[in-house]
Design brief:
Helix 3 runs antiparallel to helix 4, helix 3 runs parallel beside helix 5 and helix 5 packs antiparallel against helix 6. The chain contains 10 helices and no strands. By secondary structure, the protein is an all-alpha fold. Helices cover 72% and strands 0% of the residues. The termini are far apart.
């Protein structure tokens, strides 16, 4: 199961329809080999969600029925991983991604925060929003703490409409929370 899981993770990192379909097959094989181990369930959830970003897995737009089906399957897999191991940060991230894609922002944010609290180095938990912030011109904590939530939220929504970095709009209240949190953080990294 472990070797299948590692091979699947490598394929997910390649992105693209073919690689993600292969990752799904490998995760399913890992689950068949050990259905009581959480990481392949979390990986399956991640791969199902990520695959939706690749039009028809390489051949055109993804239809709404496929999106609904894959998000439901991803949610089931993420929740199964959490049943097996509630401290699996990747499962929280995968669940957050599903919830975000359904525009269910507050539960998604809770899932990401839980992932970060369990594994503060989990880059996947930060990736989508970090890309949006960067595209909006916010590339440091110091910069974020000076922004107005209303303006930044509008700019992020506009950029997302152009670049399609996430599958939904960012609530102004969420942006305001980031700004308030940034005000409590040190503006520099020390080693």
């Amino acid at each position: 199961a472990y070797d299948l899981y590692l091979a699947a993770r490598a394929r997910v990192r390649e992105r693209g329809g073919t690689a993600l379909n292969e990752a799904l097959r490998l995760y399913e094989a890992a689950i068949a080999a050990d259905s009581g181990w959480a990481p392949p369930w979390a990986g399956l959830a991640e791969a199902l969600e990520v695959r939706l970003w690749y039009p028809a897995f390489g051949d055109g737009p993804v239809d709404p029925a496929t999106i609904a089906r894959d998000l439901a399957a991803a949610e089931r897999a993420a929740r199964r991983a959490l049943e097996l191991d509630s401290r699996d940060a990747s499962a929280h991230v995968a669940l957050g991604n599903v919830l975000r894609d359904r525009y269910d922002w507050q539960p998604a944010e809770r899932a990401y925060r839980e992932a970060i609290s369990l594994d503060p180095d989990n880059a996947e938990a930060f990736q989508q929003y970090a890309e949006l912030l960067n595209a909006a011109g916010v590339d440091t904590i110091k910069e974020l703490r000076t922004r107005k939530a209303e303006n930044l939220s509008v700019k992020m929504t506009d950029i997302n409409a152009q670049k399609k970095l996430t599958k939904g709009a960012i609530k102004m209240e969420t942006v305001a929370g980031w700004i308030e949190q940034a005000k409590t953080l040190s503006p520099k990294i020390s080693h």
